[in-house]
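User: Predict the structure for this protein chain, please.
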Amino acid sequence: MSKNGRDKEYAPVVEALAPVLHNLPPRIIAIDGRPYSGKTTLGRFLSWWFNISLIETDLFLFEGEGRYRYREEEVARIIDARMSADRPVIIEGVTVLRQLAAINRAADFLIYVENASAPTLQREYEVQFKDYEAEFKPRQRAGFTLKLDH
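Assistant: Here is the predicted structure, written as structure tokens:
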């Protein structure tokens, strides 16, 4: 298997993104889903496949606060740099649509990752995630949903 062994599993996502990223326009591709669903792995694969930047929002998370809160100004700076260079960027993470809204950005294309094997969250995170899903409706807004079970 080539491409990190994910060719077949991710082929439908690549096919869906190919017209969106044709000629690599300055677009924001967002990947959303529950924690541990496979967002980061998918994001790394797609950034490698299309040769574009990936923002892993977990790297900008304020740790130990018991809630999802990010260093938004740093994420905005990276997105702005990619857009000003006329290049696309992939951003992935839990509550990614909220993060983008907080910096006055929107996804040009949203991928939602569902994974039947994702673990149950601690109660405090589960409540936050359900509130986020009710407000932002990422499943319904997704241009593509990838269903995994591993």
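The domain at 3-13+24-148 is CATH 3.40.50.300 (Rossmann fold).
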